[in-house]
Amino acid sequence: MSKASLFLNACIVSPDLSGNIHTMNNAHLAVDNGIISYVGTSEEEAKNSLLNPSSADMFNCRNKLIMPTFANGHSHLPMSLLKNSADDLPLEDWLFNHILPREENLNSDDIYFGSLLGIAEMIQSGIGATADMYFMAENTARAASEAGFRINLCHDGKYKKDDYWYTDEKGFSEFSRSISNMDSEMIRTSLMVHSIYLYPEYLYPQLSEMAKSLNTSIQVHISETQVEVDNSIRLYGRTPVEALRDFGIFDRPCIGAHGVHLSDSDRKILSEKKVTIAHNPSSNMKLASGLCDVRSLIAEGVNVTLGTDGSASNNNLNMFQEIRLASFIAKIVCDDAAALNAKELIDISTRAGYHSMGFNKSGVLEAGMNADLQIIDLLNPSIWPVGQPESAIVYSATTSCVESVMVAGNFLKYKNDLLTIDIDKIRHETMTRSRRIAGA
């Protein structure tokens, strides 16, 4: 059980449950048993909202900004081990000739330590949750649980034997049960459907039926490159979005990563099927995949989140970088300096991301919501003078501004120190393993 906390005299910036951004100065926030009990301008009401105010930790947050932790809409945590080892390559060459061969050499401990390294970097960036897609996911689950970090975690849900693919409902169910024994409030499970191009046609409808049977959500890559779209049209006579719809993949709640090369018809399908698109600006640019038209997605009613993708393609897990780039890309794509403004991006990177992962009580700082928050130091030179707080978050802030991170009422980072991860041990373990994998 987390200790009660009282944050006084802060600038508080948060979306409400409808996505509208609200900013309060000289405001107070109270946390009791991992839940926000008060947000407002009355110090007396803040204290009275606590079951035992005299035992609460009190923090003077003058010159601090409190906002929800970010939700990373798409990641591959263990790929932190592959950072800076295969760069300046187009996606198909990068994936099939460099990354996939190296991944064959990963073992369960590699996945565990690589996940901890990625989680540590995310916490430093003010991220409190991620939607992660990788194999041997039970090791990533263990890392997230030990770190006190929220995660929507994919399970493979299939296996290959004698050149034929089979669904694995039993394996998925066992994985889900093991996760619930860790912490069902912190970890969600979903089915991994990597992409439209990695499996034979017969497997997709089977995966869709399995997801329905298990009542689980799905994570998938969608229309990341023009090559992917062209190959899908050649193979199926349909775009990836159309093919995935027809295979039934969108009949379950779905996070689709990238969504770079979409037609107007594709966007309508995504909206009708309530598919979330996780926009990954840095990865898309670095792999020359293209520029996602986020404003057209939002205009069509598609829920959009922000993701970092994996460290092998992005080389970092910095949500401030993604937020800033997402805004700049939208302005160029739309030829409109007002496109994807600061308030929209704060909502996309917090409330919308948590909603897509199934953490509906996070991403908003209101009474009754989870105490998932980050504290930003407004005296940091990169953000000072603050001016408009929303603009400062999106256009000026860097990871060095994040002083503290709280998830479920527990500090994962406090005054710039990681509390739940032994970063020196992780550095040692991951360097040794990274060298082995790169040399394999």
Number of domains: 2
Q: Can you tell me the overall shape?
A: globular
Largest sheet: 9 strands, mixed
**Uncertain residue segments:** none
The CATH topology of the largest domain is TIM Barrel
Query: Average pLDDT across residues?
Result: 95
Oligomer: single chain
Number of helices: 17
CATH superfamily of the largest domain: Metal-dependent hydrolases
Total beta-strand segments: 19
Alpha-carbon distance between the termini?
A: 44 Å
How large is the share of residues in beta strands? 15-25%
Helix content: 25-40%
| Rg, Cα atoms, Å | 21 Å
CATH class of the largest domain: Alpha Beta
At CATH level 2, the architecture of the largest domain is Alpha-Beta Barrel
Task: Label the structural class.
Answer: alpha/beta
Could you explain how this protein is built, in words?
- With 440 residues, the chain is an alpha/beta fold.
- It has 2 domains: 5-69 and 362-418, Urease, subunit C, domain 1 (Roll); 70-357, TIM Barrel (Alpha-Beta Barrel).
- The chain is built from 17 helices and 19 strands.
- The strands form 3 sheets. Strands 1, 2, 3, 4, 5, 16, 17, 18 and 19 form a 9-stranded mixed beta sheet that branches. An 8-stranded parallel beta sheet has the order 6-7-8-11-12-13-14-15, with helices on both faces. It has a two-stranded antiparallel ribbon with strand order 9-10.
- Strand 18 and strand 19 (417-418) form a beta hairpin.
- Helix 3 packs across helix 17, helix 14 runs parallel beside helix 15 and helix 14 packs across helix 16 (389-396).
- The protein is globular and about 65 Å long.
